[in-house]
Amino acid sequence: MPASVNAGEAVFKGFDLSVHGALTRELTAGVNVGYVDASYTQTLFASSGAQLTQAGDTVGITPQVNAPWNANAWLDYGIALADGDKLVLRGEYKWKSHNKGPYVTNLPQGSAAANYYPNVQADPSYSITNARITYTRGRTDLGFYVENVFNTHPLLQMNQESTAVDFYTYSTLAPRTFGLSANYKFGAE
User: Fold this and answer.
1) Boundaries of domain holding 115
2) Residue 130 domain-assigned?
3) What is the DSSP string of 39-100?
4) By three-state DSSP, how is residue 138 classified?
5) Nearest-CA neighbor of 133 among 83, 77, 72, 73?
6) Which of 118, 122, 127, 72 is CA-nearest to residue 99?
7) Residue 108 confidence class, pLDDT cut points 50, 70, 90
8) Does residue 157 lie within any of the structural domains?
9) Contact yes or no for 33/71 (Cβ under 8 A)
10) N or C: more exposed end of the chain, with fewer CB within 10 A?
11) Residues 90 and 79 sit within 8 Å (Cβ to Cβ)
12) Higher model confidence: residue 112 or residue 24?
């Protein structure tokens, strides 16, 4: 039966900021920004003497570590049509930064050999752009959207099965996707 241990004390510092508002009668904008710094505050050793964490290491095992910075910005442009109908054009930009570590997976082999993957890195910085057009008539919204407009494919979630083999796997973002949506609002207005 494998043993489990506590990874020790950690501190998380950060903030979230969200601002949105009308720039004109037709144009609305918003920005969300978040930052987190999560790190161990103590060096911890197993009863065998193997080092498990180093004070200052980023919390998490690569590549499953949070991006320290996350940002999202959007613009909505609303066009009033006849009979109270409305057309809304929306653009959205999302960005995540690279987490530079250091990580427990970079501890010297022999210290925490089970987690020693010095070549495995956290996700790179990347961004994605989405767009949407929505037509509203009464209680019905009809939409056309494009996700990942620029068809970006960063290499994400790097994984190495064994340090004995230089074979890595990655995942990526979904490819450019086109879609339609329809919504109807039930109930009294």
Assistant:
1) 11-184
2) yes
3) EESS-EE-TTS-EEE-TTPBSS-TTS---SEEEEEEEEEEEE-GGG-EEEEEEEEEEEPPP-
4) coil
5) 77
6) 122
7) low
8) yes
9) yes
10) N
11) no
12) 24
Let me know: does 90 contact 75? Beta carbons within 8 Å: yes
How far apart are the C-alpha atoms of 116 and 160, rounded to whole Å? Answer: 10
Residue 148: what residue type? N
Say whether pLDDT at 112 is over 80: no
Tell me if 4 is assigned to some domain: no
Report the C-alpha gap between 177 and 147 in whole angstroms.
Answer: 5
* Residue bearing tokens 């505050």: 41
Query: DSSP assignment of 34-51, as one string?
Result: EEEEEEESS-EE-TTS-E
Three-class secondary structure of residue 159 per DSSP: strand
Which tens digits make up the pLDDT trace of 81-103?
989 999 999 999 999 999 888 87
* 1 domain residue, yes or no: no
The domain tally of the chain equals 1
Q: Where does residue 122 fall: left (phi above 0), alpha (psi -120 to 50 degrees), or beta otherwise?
A: beta
pTM higher than 0.85: no
Tell me phi and psi for residue 87, to 5 degrees.
Answer: -120, 130
Query: What is the identity of the amino acid at 38?
Result: A
Rounded Cα distance, 96 and 117, in Å:
23
